[in-house]
Fold:
Amino acid sequence: MSQIAILDPEMRKAIQQTRAHLDEARHLPGFYYTSEEIFQREKDTIFMREWLCVARVEEFENTGDYLATRIMGEPVVLCRGSDGELRAFRNLCQHRGVEVAVGQGNAKRFTCRYHAWTYGTDGRLTGAPHNDNVSNFDFKACRLPLLKLDTWGGYVFINFDPNCRALNDCLDEDGVREFAAFLQPENTRTSDKLEFDVPCNWKFVPENLMDMYHVGVIHKSSFGAHFPVEDFRFNLTGRGYNAVYEALTMAPGGDILFGAMPWLDGKVTDKFGCTTWVRPTMNIFGRQDMIQPWVATPISPTKTHITIYTQLPEVFFDTPGFKEKNQLIADFIRLVATEDEAMLESLQTGVSSNGFTPGPTVKLERAIHHLLNYYLDALLEEDPKSRENRIEDGAASLAEGSKRFPEPIDAGFSKSFGA
Structure:
């Protein structure tokens, strides 16, 4: 499928059904989840322009702490320099392009495994053997190319676009910082980090995490045992969404194993849940006692890397029985992830079939419908009127939900956010 084909009238017609009002809309055609060309266009229009969550600040506590990763085929390395600054570089030796860092750890320097060009933790070239004959190349000025890096809430974000907007401006556009501030993610530590690959397109990951339709089905034996979807209220923002809702915490039986996070103690109930989406691939989930973000990193049109952080307040780590209780939480999120993984693979199989026809969007997929239209705005062209209609319709749905379910499910805390 050529670039012209993506933009031709037939392709545009195929997505008009997704642009329609929620009650009349359909999900995206299957080729949006399978096409190599669309994947490359997504790279250019989304992943090379948006801020991407890649790590937690606490992973770089010491000088030389580093993390090497790849995002849509682009090698990246993050490192805490000897001057204390955290930087992100393109992980490419400036000789032949070989990656100079692998995995995660601590290093005093990075040495290319091919020809031993060596770089400091600040990215500057410090050694290049056998270069006596070289002219017209400034070895003193040579360094690993810098990428934009910023932090919020203890999360590390990078941006490949040197002219990108500020991270905070992008977060504030969707009200992320205002909504999630009460969770205080910057005052938590990672108690567990789960990483795995799933055989599906990256879009299915945030879609699935916004899909309240499936919780009582796929997750009925885990956290979906108590998840009253009729009271689920989506608060749509410019290009994202947030929600406050009723749910059990992410532990066996919904048990609060450590108590409430100190800053939420007495403010929310033990069945408090909230979520917000940081475009394009980060879903943050909060409970009374923990925070659990999911981050999706595309590998190919049909393969995605998932990272799930479990974050707890510092004070929890010193409580009696921490190791055993934390293991229960770690095992539980692995159960939930396994439940989702099988369905994500089946979704990919479905859209790859010649017999696939996109089905309708239902009210519990309001956030997914909003996400898909953000995606089409970025991939093709913006449709401000469609976005305005979705947000107005979402506000009307919130108001209707308040009439049907007037009692707050979180000790009234959600009133701060109009949910």
Remarks:
- The two ends are 43 Å apart (CA to CA).
- Residues 408-419 have pLDDT under 50 and may be disordered.
